[in-house]
Every structure is written in C-alpha cells, then in structure tokens.
Amino acid sequence: MTKKKPLVVVTRRLPDMVETRMAELFDVRLNHDDAPMRQADLIEAVKTADVLVPTITDMIDSAVLAQAGPQLRLIANFGAGVDHIDVQQALARGVTVTNTPGVLTEDTADMTMALILSVARRIAEGARVVPDDEWTGWSPTWMLGRRITGKRLGIVGMGRIGQALARRARAFGLSIHYHNRRRVPAATEQALEATYWESLDQMLARMDIISVNCPHTPATYHLLSARRLKLLKPSAIIVNTARGEIIDETAMARMLEANELSGAGLDVFEHAPAVNPRLLKLARANKVVLLPHLGSATIESRHDMGEKVILNIQTFMDGHRPPDRILPSML
Ligand SMILES: O=CC(=O)O
C-alpha cells in the first residue's frame, strides 16, 4: 500500500524548481498569486494542513496556533529567523518547528559588507547623483566618505553570519571585535583574529562600525536600546541585516537626526514592511541607506532554502528528527 502523502500548505510563492519538487513529493497547496496570507487564511491552513511552510510575512502567533487541528505536526519555515512564530506555543502543542540555517549565510554576510561600504563610501548617494544629472566632474573635496581600512568593526552576534562577515571584513582591513551570548571557541577566535567583549556596553563605546547579526528573541528585543546607542561614538555607523526589532529604531532615528550617529545601513525594520517615516526622511537626506530585506535574496539562497524545507519535511515524515529542528535552548 502506498503511504498517504502529507498535506503541505505553502504560504507564499517559492522558486519554480522548489514548488515542482514539492508537488512531486507531497499533496501540496501552493499560493500562486503570492499575496501574503491574512490571519483568517493562516487559521484555515493550520486547521487542515499536516505541514505548514510559512515565511517571515506570516504571523504564526498563539491565536493562530490555538486554532490548529490535531493533524498539524510540523511548521517547516522557509527562512532562518523564526521570530514570527510562537515556537514555545507550537512545541507545547507537540508541533515541531524547523528553519533553513546555513544556506543563506554567505549571501547575508555579503549584503552586510555591501551596506558597510555603501554607508561609509556613500555608494547609494553616488549612484543617485549620476542618473539625476547632478555630477559635474571630479572634485578633490566633493562627496567624501570615510575610509574603512583600519577601523574597528563590532559584531553583535557571532553565529554563522557574524563569522562570515568577520572573514570578509578582515580582507577589508577592519579589526574584528564581537559580543556574543557565548564566547566562540578559541580556534575560531584566532582564525578570525577576533577580540571578544563580554560587555556589550564597553564594546559599543569603542567601535567605528557596529553590525547586528544576532537572532531576534525576547532577550535581544531592543538590545541596542536608547541607552546603549548613546554609548556609540558620534562618528560611528550601524548596519543591521538581522531584524529591526533588535535596535530601538526611534532612538536611532533621533540620534541620526541630531548627528549623534554618523550613518546607518538597514536591510530590516522594526515594523516591516512599514518603514519609520523619520528613516525615510534620513534616507532622502543621504544619512542612511535603506534596503528592502535583501539579505538572502539570491537565486541560489532561495533555491537552497527550498531544498532545506523539503529535506526537513521528508525527514520528519519518515519518522526521524529533521536536521533543522528548533530547540527551546535556541530561543
Ligand atoms: O531574514 C531572513 C531569514 O530569516 O531567513
């Protein structure tokens, strides 16, 4: 007898190859028009699906989970961050949650480095000036940015992406500093020539560039609070390719407006997709560079993320532990 295929509900369009493979393997319900699901749609999905494949645009909170039917056994998130899922609640209901770590590391680290360069060397601003016909020719004093070679980079969160950023930043001549919940092994520290700061406050006060690379959890919400942001040098810049909620965005905007911070490069926002109007104004004034959450947006990353989702579902359905299971200790 052939085994009944699990009903897998996918909330957004995924790369063609991934959808095709899923349709071969599972009884899959796809979202062809790609419109983000409303809460009512999500509730309908968890009432019927054996497996839900959400993305960051789906709020899988306790209200949604409370409506889940007993058949829902796995939430196989398409993405690394799971802060849009009430994982504690899911686990308490016996629902396994998986994510897609590792495959988007290099691309996200590239984008972080791109933001550092873009802010320090005024790349986004320069790229506007030429097509806007505002360039009259080379000048010794016009559009000067800041050198990054020799500066101090403070990485908040030395996981996979933080380490991939450190490798890139070393090649640009930055000195590497980091703060992490746990100190990384000595061999990693040595390979990256990274200095560990147990005190985030002390690190912040000494850095030229701060990069946020930790996950968003209750413990990291507003980790860069108004008080901590004040510890930064006025010449410092901040980049964030992790989650907007880790920085007190209003406090950061206020400091940028007051020239108490020199610039910021943000790929993520506290209330995404809404962007704080003050940040939009600062972007028009070329004080900040804002990107529409492009960290993992490469064809390769999105394909590999899909492959990971499929592997997690297959492994789980075969009765084994899926490779990318979220454990309570990770939250
Ligand atoms: O931000 C993207 C992700 O969490 O995968």
UniProtKB/TrEMBL annotation:
What CDD domains is this protein classified in?
GDH
Q: Does the keyword Cell cycle apply?
A: no
Single GO cellular component term:
cytosol
Annotated D-isomer specific 2-hydroxyacid dehydrogenase catalytic domain ranges read 8-325
Q: Which residues form the D-isomer specific 2-hydroxyacid dehydrogenase NAD-binding domain?
A: 113-295
| Keywords, in A-Z order | NAD, Oxidoreductase
Q: Which InterPro entries match?
A: D-isomer_2-hydroxyacid_DH (IPR050223), D-isomer_2_OHA_DH_cat_dom (IPR006139), D-isomer_DH_CS (IPR029753), D-isomer_DH_CS1 (IPR029752), D-isomer_DH_NAD-bd (IPR006140), NAD(P)-bd_dom_sf (IPR036291)
User: Organism's domain of life?
Assistant: Bacteria
What are the GO MF terms of this UniProt record? glyoxylate reductase (NADPH) activity; hydroxypyruvate reductase [NAD(P)H] activity; NAD binding
Q: According to its UniProt record, which protein family does this protein belong to?
A: Belongs to the D-isomer specific 2-hydroxyacid dehydrogenase family.
This protein is called Glyoxylate reductase
